[in-house]
Design a protein that fits this description.
By secondary structure, the protein is α+β, with helices and mostly antiparallel strands. It has two domains: 3-201, Alpha-lytic protease prodomain-like; 208-293, Alpha-Beta Plaits (2-Layer Sandwich). It has eight helices and four strands. Strands 3-2-1-4 form a four-stranded mixed beta sheet, covered by helices on one side. A hairpin with a 2-residue loop joins strand 1 (227-236) and strand 2. Helix 2 packs antiparallel against helix 5, helix 2 (32-58) packs parallel to helix 6 and helix 4 packs antiparallel against helix 5. The two termini are 42 Å apart. The mean pLDDT is 81.
Length: 295
């Protein structure tokens, strides 16, 4: 089992632990804000399960029906997580509305508040570790899970501030109002996550800084060629697909041109592990005199 999968499964365990603490805080205090916080964490558990399933599927080797692999499965998990986040926000808004229309008594239980604070500390530590591993392995599913958990941390911080405000002022209305604010923040987080994930499904190009790094590598390792043009990139999970045309002298042998391509592929692979490079070799009369000049 690789590191990505271990962290994906760890998210499920951490999610269950944090949900238990937050739900206990809600039971002890009766706070709708604590309820909204616990409900968001329950979504974390569902999304962690989806992320683990997507990582398992994405690691399956290419087959006859999927010659480019199963890498995009991670984006489907991220989209599902975004949908679940928005659903959680709708449920919280409903609970907040009920709290505004049906007055209730909020109990200030220090044990419950302490449980919520402890859950936030656990979440914060785990989210930072999860983001580090997600970036290392270029996993959209793990990074989406980490962002969601960190949003949960911010939400919990706001909830604790709101509970303190109720305690100081005695205005119970702060509790459902804070829950509504939390719901709007969660909904915005879910929308951003879905937008980014759909971009991956639609084969968006790699970030400009990554493309610039590719141009530098092609120029550096393409000695013997004349130029490269029509660079195209796309991400599929942790894999970056790279395609471009390489112009070589017309009299160059196939063997020599192939050696240049191998050198470029190895150079890109060292700097960008997991890259899949496709090179179309052309004679010099196809040069566009633009794009990447080979050093």
């Amino acid at each position: 089992m690789d590191q990505s999968m271990r962290f994906a499964l760890g998210s499920i365990i951490i999610g269950i632990l944090v949900f238990s603490l937050k739900y206990a805080a809600f039971v002890l205090t009766g706070s709708i804000a604590f309820y909204s916080d616990a409900l968001e964490t329950s979504i974390n558990i569902a999304s962690a399960i989806a992320a683990a399933g997507a990582l398992y599927l994405a690691r399956k080797p290419a087959d006859h029906n999927h010659p480019f692999g199963h890498y995009k499965a991670e984006y489907f998990a991220a989209v599902l997580e975004g949908v679940l986040i928005v659903l959680a926000a709708v449920l919280i808004l409903r609970k907040a509305y009920m709290g505004l229309t049906e007055p209730y008594e909020l109990e200030f239980n220090l044990q419950g508040i302490g449980m919520n604070l402890l859950s936030s500390i656990i979440n914060c530590i785990w989210a930072m570790a999860l983001m580090r591993v997600g970036r290392k392995h270029r996993s959209p599913a793990l990074q989406a899970d980490a962002r969601h958990i960190m949003t949960d941390v911010y939400t919990s911080g706001g909830v604790l501030v709101g509970i303190a405000a109720v305690w100081v002022t005695g205005w119970q209305i702060f509790d459902p109002l804070l829950a509504a604010i939390v719901a709007v923040n969660i909904m915005w987080s879910g929308w951003k996550l879905m937008r980014e994930s759909v971009g991956g499904l639609m084969d968006e190009a790699a970030p400009e800084e990554e493309q610039e790094e590719l141009r530098v590598l092609i120029s550096k390792f393409g000695e013997g060629a004349l130029e490269a043009h029509d660079l195209r990139t796309r991400h599929a999970g942790h894999v970056t697909f790279v395609e471009f045309h390489l112009v070589v002298p017309g009299e160059m042998t196939v063997l020599d041109a192939h050696a240049i391509c191998d050198r470029i592929e190895e150079g890109i692979g060292e700097k960008m592990p997991g890259a899949r490079v496709t090179i179309h070799v052309e004679p010099e009369n196809h040069a566009k005199h633009s794009g990447i000049v080979v050093l």
